[in-house]
Amino acid sequence: MSDLKRILCVEDEPDIQAVARLALEMVGGFTVKVCSSGQEALDSVAAFAPDLILMDVMMPGMDGPATLQALRAQADLAAIPVVFMTAKVQPEEVQHYKDIGAVDVIPKPFDPMTLASQVRDAWMRRNG
Amino acid sequence: MSPNSVNPAGQLEAVLLRLRGDFLAELPERCNRLEQAVLALEGGQGAEAAYEELFRNVHSLKGTGGTFGLQTITTICHQFESFLSDSHSRYTQAFGSAALAYVDLLRQVGDLAAATASPDFTAVEAALERLRTTLLRSRARCSSPSLRPACAAFISSLWRTCRCRSAWSTTASRPWTGSCINPSNC
User: Fold this and answer.
1) Distances, alpha carbon A18 to alpha carbons A108, B16, B23, in Å
2) Is 80 exceeded by the pLDDT of residue A116?
3) What is the pLDDT of residues B149-174, one digit of tens each?
4) Measured between beta carbons, which residues in chain A are less than 8 angstroms from residue B13?
């Protein structure tokens, strides 16, 4: 099992981008690239080669599920695990996100102090 | 060597505190934009774009507020978002009054959070609950389309904006207070 080192964070809200990046870099020690939209993520993912994608669900334009679908349609990107961040965390909503391919769902608003460990736990569960 | 230089969590906490301050400093301007979007809806021109702008900004505030530990902002925005969804982007006088009441509550949270390190949001949360109850009652009454104009007038008669920007009710009937919820500022 490879280590979790590189995370692509896809989030349209600048404040949350900043907090997520800081939390993942400073506490988790990860290398982080931030994208502001689903399309930007699709354009960047091959070059950045993330171990995991942490993605907002509700974004203007291409939302999280649509971006996930586009990733899964590309053979070389399909295996990258995607973790959603969303305020919609009713059990049936979480199950829906997992059914469409997300490996885990982190509730928003997230706690910056524990975001890195939540992401690492999701990674461990998938690779455990 | 400061404790933060060897403690990533401490470093993050310090940065978060600064970002929270920036967020609170920008909150009045963000509330202004919400108000402008509501007023644009009232004007009718570009209503669809204004509605989308309003929804996007409320959703954005919901996530950001909670991330900075301001859970009351998330709660207000969560209800505001549901209210916007339920309205199906139809503007009425009642819609405008209720939307502006939500914005006023967000302003109050911002003012309280900026004023003290341990703000007490009890009054704001009570006002939010009164607003939620009022809207639930109006929705029940609005089950028939023919009643909607009457409900619009009803809701509009309840909510006013005080000069301290608190949302308040003009009726003395329970559960409304009949006075500004923030009398110390009036």
Assistant:
1) 15, 9, 12
2) yes
3) 445 554 444 444 443 444 443 332 32
4) 113
List alpha helices for chain A, DSSP H: 14-22, 38-48, 64-72, 91-99, 115-127
Tell me how far apart the alpha carbons of residues A16 and B66 are, in angstroms, rounded to a whole number: 10
* DSSP conformation class of B118: S
Average pLDDT over residues A97-113: 94
CA angle A89, B88, A85 (to 5 degrees): 20
Number of domains present in the structure of chain A: 1
CB contact under 8 A, A109 and B19: no
Of A120-124, B14-18, B26-30, give the lowest mean pLDDT range.
Answer: B14-18
A121 domain residue, yes or no? yes
Q: Which residues of A touch B23 (CB under 8 A)?
A: 15
The answer to ipTM > 0.85 is no
**Cβ contacts of A116 on chain B, cutoff 8 Å:** none
N-to-C CA span, chain A: 9
Nearest to B34 by CA among B15, B67, B56, B3: B56
Nearest to B178 by CA among B151, B153, B154, B157: B157
Amino acid code (one letter) for A74: Q
Alpha helices in B3-147 (DSSP H): 8-43, 47-67, 71-87, 93-115, 122-141
Q: Facing residues of A32 across strands?
A: A7
Tokens of B15: 């940065």
The domain limits of chain B are: 9-185
Of residues B166, B80, B75, the one with CA closest to residue B123: B166
Closest approach of B62 to chain A, Cα-based (Å): 8
Range of the domain at A22: 6-127
A1 inside domain:
no
Could you tell me if A68 and A100 are in contact, meaning their C-beta atoms sit under 8 angstroms apart? Answer: yes
